[in-house]
Specification:
The structure is a single chain. This protein is of the alpha/beta class and 256 residues long. α5 links the parallel β3 and β4. 43% of the residues lie in helices and 18% in strands. The strands form 2 sheets. A 5-stranded mixed beta sheet has the order 2-1-3-4-9, with helices on both faces. α2 packs across α11 and α6 packs across α7. It is built from 11 helices and 9 strands. The longest helix has 15 residues.
């Protein structure tokens, strides 16, 4: 029986962070799925097109990848998403994969990073090991969403603070916003923060919206409040424990 494993992420056009995050997770999944042939896909057509145009790198979107796997005669497919929350991208991907349900003997689908209560505990504990080494408050930048899963961001902050981590979580597109975070910092008269992405990769949002030179970057907004800011351009995917969590999710993938 021919078996395939498909790893799906949003993608990134930043080579360095891709190697340390997406590729690192893919390689770990390859190691644990030695009996499976490996495939990858990105959900962002914008990134797929940019990589093709700029670097002549061809990446499938999920439908193209599933078509390729189907036409190559595979019987069993394990699909592992590298998304952080159960937002629009995750829901869309799962629906796309379900369309192929009758074309294979088995399709299994692995959860994103934050799905169960145990996931939140695991991720919060893993992050705390890093934030505890820092000498001041940590601000995490998440992507955010208008999907109902936006509650994942205040939830992970709650878990972190419940563990004793001095961390606030904000989002680029959703709630809490940077203004909500700054309000809390000013209430406590915080004078220094460490700023990190709560995203798989340190890509465009981290490089520009978080750490960029524009007036509306989080770095400049925070510093305009006379708060010193230390930048950490490392995506969650660089953390070995987060990489291992995606591998574990792939192993526990359930049939759809």
């Amino acid at each position: 029986m021919k078996k395939a494993v498909l790893v799906v992420s949003f993608g990134t056009s930043y080579h360095e962070t891709r190697e340390k995050t997406i590729n690192a997770v893919e390689n770990k999944i390859k190691e644990d799925f030695k009996e499976y042939d490996f495939f990858r896909a990105y959900t962002s057509n914008m990134i797929i097109n940019k990589l093709k145009r700029r670097d002549n790198i061809e990446i499938d979107n999920p439908i193209q990848a599933m078509e390729r796997i189907y036409k190559s005669g595979y019987d069993e497919v394990v699909v592992q998403t590298l998304h952080i929350i159960c937002g629009h991208e995750y829901v869309k991907l799962k629906e796309q994969i379900k369309e192929y349900k009758d074309k294979f003997k088995s399709i299994k689908f692995g959860n994103p990073l934050l799905y169960s209560i145990e996931d939140y505990k695991y991720v919060a504990s893993s992050l705390k090991e890093i934030t505890d080494k820092m000498d001041s408050t940590v601000v995490l930048m998440g992507h955010g969403t208008d999907h109902e899963s936006h509650s994942a961001y205040p939830a992970i902050e709650y878990y972190l603070r419940d563990l004793g981590a001095d961390v606030y979580v904000g989002t680029v597109e959703g709630y809490p916003e940077i203004d909500n975070v700054i309000k809390k910092l000013k209430e406590r008269n915080i004078k220094k923060v460490h700023l990190m992405p709560f995203m798989l990769v340190a890509g465009d949002h981290a490089q520009n919206d978080m750490a960029g030179d524009e007036e509306d970057s989080w770095k400049n907004i925070i510093e305009s409040e006379n708060i010193e800011t230390v930048i950490h351009l490392k995506g969650l995917g660089e953390m070995e424990k987060i990489q291992n969590k995606f591998v574990e999710n792939a192993k526990k993938a359930e049939e759809i």
